[in-house]
Design a protein that fits this description.
The chain is mainly alpha-helical. The chain has a domain of 56 residues. Helices cover 51% and strands 7% of the residues. It contains seven helices and three strands, in the order βββααααααα. Strands 1-2-3 form a three-stranded antiparallel sheet. A hairpin with a 7-residue loop joins strand 2 and strand 3. The protein is elongated, with a radius of gyration of 31 Å.
Length: 229
Amino acid sequence: MPLSDAEGQIIAGRLRVYAGDSEEYYTFVTPEAYASLKEWFDFRISYGEKINPDSWVMRDIWQTTNIKYGARLGLATVTKKLKSSGVKRILERALWEQGLRRPLKDGEKRHEWKAAHGFRKYYKTHAEQLMKPINVEITMGHDIGVSSSYYKPTESEVLEDYLKAVPLLTINGENLVLQKQIKELTEKTTNNDYLVNAKLQEKDDALATLSDQVMKLMIEVQELKKQHT
């Protein structure tokens, strides 16, 4: 679910993890991640899948070409939940294909970081630089122990804290930097407009005051003329 600010700009996405389970919890994703998820759902819709609030974020891969009918529709209508093992295989395959994972050297038993868990570790490491550690634990679905009896932040409060870490969690920061520059330029332009309008108002007020003084002086001159005639 997209979350927007007062101006209608998407600031984050909200996810329900383990929906319907006793361990269900909420978490957030960056605007960049939400845009990628939306693109994924739009792709599925283009192949005929009916997306609803109960649709799985990750589903099985379907036939993308209907040779017999030459159409896209109807090929993705029957959905099947992709298990965690399936998600892990997709991640591992992507790591190998992108050259990020290489064969282990002699004597090595495991890779430097895990395929799936590495993303959670990345999130925790970067988010804790700007967020309250306990809020990071909440958004990761971790049990905060006895603290849960005393610390009960609202979802809005956790979101506000999460937004501080969005720049560090954004992979392609160029768009984020550009948006920030545009916002700063817009604010600067607005401030400049206020200054110009204020100066113009001061000028108008000064002219009005001068005009009043001239009129008063002319009246006084007329009165003096009457007194000497």
